[in-house]
Specification:
Elements: H1 7-21, E1 31-33, E2 36-38, E3 45-47, H2 50-59, E4 65-68, H3 91-96, E5 101-104, H4 110-118, E6 122-125, H5 132-147, H6 151-172, E7 186-193, E8 196-199, H7 205-211, E9 216-217, H8 229-235, E10 239-242, H9 245-253, H10 261-265, E11 268-270, H11 273-276, H12 281-296, H13 316-357, H14 360-378, H15 385-388, H16 404-415, H17 431-443, H18 454-460
Parallel strand pairs: 3-4, 3-5, 5-6, 7-9, 7-10, 10-11
Antiparallel strand pairs: 1-2, 7-8
Length: 469
């Protein structure tokens, strides 16, 4: 972290900022991001990562988007032409768009990146933010790239603050329970990953959204996202959010989960994975949908995704009007169905609430006990090294090393909050990395040498590794 060591330097910084705002050249660009340099403000960009697109639109930079992947399906961005799949886009379409910067995720093929970089098109790979600190960093990084290292970064900071303010504003509308001894309602989020049903656990971005409902996530004390039906049975959440039809089928066909009060009483709402993994305007709408459902009984539908046509329509304006009309009709039909379902389940909800009220205090204790046991059972296999594609066998790293393993270590330290700025994920083991390793070692009970010996690396890539305070 840079420190201002004198009033003189502070004055220089203030004057520099004022000069930037007044339009003086050379203060905003070039911008350095990790091992990449952006020489001037991008006028045209292509966005392949749907979450990054959500942030860009929320910050007000969507006017720069001249192309998107099929996965970027937000309605407001539907006017931008598709360039194909996010992992394997059409390089030629991107080049034809005259874009100078492409925002992607780690799934993009290396061959596409190399081809774009040959034409001096910068490819920025954005990582998903699991913590508020990481999310703020992503906002700042995107702001710097699109608006400059002073004005743009400030816009990133302000936009992130606005996002939190909007979600807290929705949270503030929740009625206050006059009974100060009453326990909070319990919730959970179930989703399908591969062929397995998963549950939203602690230290995840999804849990942060759930917290804005003022309900208690029954999996908020565990790391293992594998569904334990006994935990669900003991906790018996009052509300269940689920991702899709596969998750709903798994819940209703399971002999234990099908008997949960939320399932039998109809206190279930679909929140798609798309809604739970986007960190711009979609996040605000997701929090509102959950709060409205829990406290107002309103089950609004998510925004309908963009339908990507197989061929360019001859009349884009007419096509957009037709799509809009179809979406409105679908929303009205769904709204009518939801109202009918709410009326049919109202009596059942009241019965279920009366039956579970007496056992509320005991439920929380049982859920905590079961959750702790689940965490203990999962402790034997908690390494995330495979996810980061690093082999820890006999691996040790030290200062002045420069290789791919160092970069992966820096990425993990960044994800845990020990490295503040993604720009420092370079692959070179310098002073910043040494300080980050020392801080990690201190926080995790390891002798703070600053050298990433094998024991330190094994702990660093363990799910139980403590994040920066």
């Amino acid at each position: 972290m840079k420190k201002i060591v004198s009033f003189l330097l502070a004055g220089v910084v203030a004057l520099t900022f004022a000069a930037a705002l007044s339009g003086c050249a050379g203060t905003e660009y070039p911008v350095e991001i990790a091992n990449m340099q952006i020489d001037k403000e991008p006028e045209n960009i292509v966005v392949l990562d749907a979450n990054t697109a959500d942030i860009i639109a929320y910050m007000g930079y969507d006017g720069k988007i001249v192309g998107r992947s099929d996965q970027v399906d937000q309605q407001d961005l539907g006017a931008a032409p598709s360039v194909g799949a996010s992992s394997n886009p059409s390089v030629q379409k991107i080049k034809d768009s005259k874009a100078t910067v492409v925002f992607a995720s780690d799934t993009i093929k290396d061959s596409a990146v190399k081809s774009l970089e040959k034409d001096n098109i910068k490819v920025v790979k954005m990582s998903f933010a699991d913590t508020p600190k990481q999310l703020q960093t992503n906002y700042k990084t995107i702001g710097k790239i699109l608006g400059g290292k002073i004005t743009g970064e400030k816009k990133g900071v302000d936009s992130y603050a606005k996002l939190i303010e909007e979600m807290e504003g929705i949270q503030s509308t929740i009625p206050v329970n006059p009974n100060t001894n009453a326990q909070a309602d319990t919730i959970c989020y179930l989703y399908y990953e591969g062929n397995n049903l998963k549950i939203m656990t602690r230290d995840t971005y999804g849990e942060m959204l759930l917290e804005y409902t003022n309900c208690v996530n029954i999996a908020g004390q565990i790391n293992d996202d594998t569904v334990d039906v006994q935990v669900l049975k003991n906790a018996n959440p009052k509300y269940v959010f689920y991702s899709d039809a596969n998750a709903l089928k798994a819940i209703k066909t399971d002999s234990v989960m099908s008997k949960l009060s939320a399932v039998r009483g109809g206190n279930m709402l679909q929140i798609t994975e798309r809604e739970m993994k986007r960190q711009g305007g979609t996040a605000v709408q997701t929090v509102k949908r959950m709060v409205d459902f829990v406290y107002k009984g309103k089950a609004s539908t998510p925004e309908q995704p963009v339908t990507v046509p197989s061929a360019a329509p001859s009349k884009p304006a007419a096509a957009q009007q037709a799509t809009k009309a179809a979406n409105q009709a679908a929303q009205q039909a769904t709204k009518a169905a939801n109202q009918a379902a709410q009326q049919a389940t109202k009596a059942a909800n009241q019965t279920a609430q009366q039956a579970t009220k007496a056992a509320a205090n005991q439920t929380a204790q049982q859920a905590t006990k079961a959750a702790n046991q689940t965490a203990a059972n999962a402790a034997a296999n908690t390494s995330v090294a495979a996810q980061y594609k690093i082999n820890l066998t006999k691996l040790s790293l030290k200062t002045e090393d420069e290789n791919g393993n160092v970069k992966i270590m820096q990425k993990r330290l960044y994800d845990l909050g020990y490295i503040d700025d993604a720009e420092n994920v370079t692959g070179y083991y310098g002073e910043v990395s040494e300080k980050a390793v020392q801080d990690f070692q201190k926080a995790n009970g390891i002798k703070a040498t600053g050298t990433a010996d094998n024991a330190t690396l094994v702990k660093l890539f363990d799910k139980t590794a403590k994040k920066a305070g």
